[in-house]
Amino acid sequence: MAQFDLIVIGAGPGGYVCAIRAAQLGLKVAVVEGRETLGGTCLNVGCIPSKALLHATHSLHEAEHNFAKMGLNVAAPTVDWAKMQAYKADVVGGNTKGIEFLFKKNKITWLKGWASIPAQGQVKVGDDLHEAKAIVIATGSEAASLPGVPVDEKVIVTSTGALSLDNPPKSMVVIGAGVIGLEMGSVYARLGAEVTVVEYLDAITPGMDGEIAKSFQKLLTRQGLKFVLGAAVQGAELTASGAKVSYKLRKDDSEHAIEADVVLVATGRRPYTAGLGLEALGVEMLPRGQVKTDDHYRTSLPGLYAIGDAITGPMLAHKAEDEGIAVAEIIAGKVGHVNYDAIPGVVYTTPELASVGKTEEQLKEEGRAYKVGKFSFMGNARAKAVFQGDGMVKMIVDAATDRVLGCHIIGPAAGDMIHEICVAMEFGASAEDVARTCHAHPTYSEAVREAALACGDGAIHS
Ligand code: NAI
């Protein structure tokens, strides 16, 4: 029986990062992963392949719409789908191999197979039993199913199938206007599909600042995406040419149907813990299927921890990574901590949408007095130079102290720029602190500074 200080179950961003940090802290570590490659959903069928397709199709859009404006005359671009898929596979392969390299470098053992936990301190992989002083569940999540919508991953697909369609469809219905729906909807709209997003709520991107969500929807509509809001999907069925989705409008209960070549179900994900044997061990679970943990990621079974999508909180790779580092530090006897008030969220469309901290709606509900500073990218020279003058930065600060409480950006490289505000929030900075920090010109980041200035005496370029 092999013995380890730590066995991590799952090699996604939560699990592999946890393993690396634990090895760096001197622990003898193994990771159990049943996929052929490391990296979990994120690297194999999530964040990374979708970014490859977003990049490729954004480039197509640039060639079709902006090249000629810059005096670049090229023949109308055509799409070689097989080659685009191969490019995507290369990107994924490079990254998953990279994790394998990091495992070797850090002397982490990869136990190939699917794990179960037969008893406290034990992990079974195939016929082999291993012992560990600590076990971390980092098994992630799977696409949640929708009653009456039978997924075949060919015509009715989840994000996994949507990344590897046989051909780009001419029409697509996306169920759910969350992150997956909008990213993949953008990909196929740029490839020429007529994309209709059917969403239960009255706004897209649930939980996002209301004003930002509205303006994001306008931008996406201009790009050709259609939205049916306030619509509860009742079911879907295969037809001769694709699939038919039926939905009910919530305002008047009227029933409608829409047909498309492909239907993407993007109505959320649920924790994946099947096969671990947690029930038999009596590990406490939460009603929505997450493993119950305390502030130190401890489950109800001594020595068993859980992180990432398998526990509560936003289902984001970087949240899982941070928890992976924190739990490794805790297991190694150090102090590990995640600040859940400063976790950014990004939608990688063009323009990008990035957000951290409080929305106006949340602050109103809390009854907290706040001020808002806004700046449009139309006033940002760099953004205009690259045809990205759409969007804005919206900063929200405490009315009395000027402390930054949240920031919401629609614009070029928003997903990178948001970190300036994450750092500001970690340091308890005020808008004035951000405004008095020199920002290079010409950069997109100047728009963040302008929004900070708008919280005080006013932005310069608006
Ligand atoms: P989501 O939770 O972001 O959005 C699902 C949407 O579906 C919601 O707006 C919901 O109201 C709607 N919906 C649910 N049932 C419906 C019905 N019957 N009819 C119509 N609409 C319905 O879920 P999504 O987009 O599937 O993403 C899953 C998870 O993966 C999320 O936690 C997301 O944060 C994460 N993710 C993050 C990415 C990123 O950070 N860029 C990229 C992709 C996924």
Automatic annotation (TrEMBL):
Location of the FAD/NAD(P)-binding domain: 4-324
Ligand binding (NAD(+)): G176, A177, G178, V179, I180, G181, L182, E183, E199, G268
Catalytic activity, EC: 1.8.1.4
Record GO cellular component, one term: cytoplasm
Positions contributing to FAD binding: K51, T139, G140, S141, D309, M315, L316, A317, H318
GO molecular function, one term: dihydrolipoyl dehydrogenase (NADH) activity
Reactions the enzyme catalyzes: N(6)-[(R)-dihydrolipoyl]-L-lysyl-[protein] + NAD(+) = N(6)-[(R)-lipoyl]-L-lysyl-[protein] + NADH + H(+)
SUPFAM superfamilies for this protein: FAD/NAD(P)-binding domain (SSF51905), FAD/NAD-linked reductases, dimerisation (C-terminal) domain (SSF55424)
InterPro entries: Class-I_Pyr_Nuc-Dis_Oxidored, FAD/NAD-bd_sf, FAD/NAD-binding_dom, FAD/NAD-linked_Rdtase_dimer_sf, Lipoamide_DH, Pyr_nuc-diS_OxRdtase, Pyr_nucl-diS_OxRdtase_dimer, Pyr_OxRdtase_I_AS
Highest rank taxon of the organism: Bacteria
Active site feature: H441
Gene3D superfamilies cross-referenced by the UniProt entry: 3.30.390.30, FAD/NAD(P)-binding domain
Domain Pyridine nucleotide-disulphide oxidoreductase dimerisation intervals: 343-452
GO biological process entries: 2-oxoglutarate metabolic process
Cofactor(s) named in the record: FAD
Disulfide topology: C42-C47
Keywords (A to Z) from UniProt: Disulfide bond, FAD, Flavoprotein, NAD, Nucleotide-binding, Oxidoreductase, Redox-active center
Sequence similarity: Belongs to the class-I pyridine nucleotide-disulfide oxidoreductase family.
Note: The active site is a redox-active disulfide bond.
Protein name: Dihydrolipoyl dehydrogenase
Organism, as annotated: Falsigemmobacter intermedius
Lineage: Bacteria, Pseudomonadati, Pseudomonadota, Alphaproteobacteria, Rhodobacterales
